[in-house]
Amino acid sequence: MNILNRLFSLEGKTALVTGGASGIGRMIATALVEAGAHVMIASRKGDECIKVANEINVTKPAGKAEGFSGNVGTEEGVNNLVSEVKSRCEALNILVNNAGVTWGTPLGEFPYGAWAKVMDVNVTGLFHLTQQLLPLLEKGASDEDPARVINLGSIMGNCPLGDGAYSYSASKAAVHHLTKILGKELAERRITINAFAPGPFQSKMTAFATDSDEKAAKVGAGVPLGRIGSPDDIAGATLFLCGKGGSYVTGAILPLCGGTHLLSAPPLFD
Questions:
Q1: Which residue of the set 112, 166, 168, 248 is catalytic?
Q2: What is the pTM (predicted TM-score) of this model?
Q3: What is the residue-level pLDDT of the chain in tens, covering all 270 positions?
Q4: Structural domain boundaries of the chain?
Q5: Which value, in Å, is the radius of gyration of the alpha carbons in the chain?
Q6: Residue 228, Cβ density class (10 Å: 0-12 exposed, 13-18 middle, ≥19 buried)
Q7: Does 3-258 carry CATH code 3.40.50.720?
Q8: Closest listed residue to residue 15, CA positions, set 132, 121, 135, 137
């Protein structure tokens, strides 16, 4: 076996990607399938998940995808999604908590209800889905090859960037801290937990700023590396953390942001 297959192949692995029908979730799901995994794609829009799974499978990848409905925004939704996953597999090797929502409103007008809505999906649902899937993850884990959990954080959870999305930024900071806590607690159970902290990528959530080449270029000009992120940037990080090559990494917050997390105030004496 060559080194690429040894370190990055996911042949025989089973994965769940929440919110996998669009944006970064779809990028992650596609990468996992192309690397050989059997990937379950779930989101509130079950029809979209089925459509995306079919579009991935028609390319004849090394693995396969299947889509169905799943909502992590309520307790009932989490319970139903866990039941659905248990009916489809006996062990889970990879869980990607990608489902997320945002809310943007100026500070003086930010509504009370926007906190509960965003936190329910981005933090509460993420935590309880992971909690309930631990038995399946433990079955998919070994000393040499732990089960993997990837949480979707954000550069906005690393840096003091509100941009009107106050509950979103706070929720992603919570995701980062929770990732470290669970990384510490679950290591002895041979489950690694890491998080992505993406900067700007093209998705439905960022369509207002990136849905054209002109807009994407304008946003990318503010990134130290001079561009917004691409699907390959997500794919490479996913295969690293989920493949053999990432088996010794846990509790990490990976800044997939082109260096945005390094920005601070302008030079004092420039």
A1: 168
A2: 0.95
A3: 799 999 999 999 999 999 999 999 999 999 999 999 999 999 999 999 999 999 999 999 999 999 999 999 999 999 999 999 999 999 999 999 999 999 999 999 999 999 999 999 999 999 999 999 999 999 999 999 999 999 999 999 998 877 889 999 999 999 999 999 999 999 999 999 999 999 988 877 777 778 788 888 888 888 999 999 999 999 999 999 999 999 999 999 999 999 989 887 566 555
A4: 3-258
A5: 18
A6: buried
A7: yes
A8: 137
Q: What is the 3-state secondary structure (H, E, C) of the chain?
A: CCHHHHHHCCCCCEEEEECCCCHHHHHHHHHHHHCCCEEEEEECCHHHHHHHHHHHHCCCCCCEEEEEECCCCCHHHHHHHHHHHHHHCCCCCEEEECCCCCCCCCHHHCCCHHHHHHHHHHHHHHHHHHHHHHHHHHHCCCCCCCEEEEEECCHHHCCCCCCCCHHHHHHHHHHHHHHHHHHHHHHHHCEEEEEECCCCCCCCCCHHHHCCHHHHHHHHCCCCCCCCCCHHHHHHHHHHHHCHHHCCCCCCEECCCCCHHHCCCCCCCC
* Angle between helix 23-34 and 231-242 (nearest 10): 50
Distance CA 148, CA 95 (A): 6
**Residue given tokens 């192309």 in the structure block:** 34
Active-site annotation holds for 168: yes
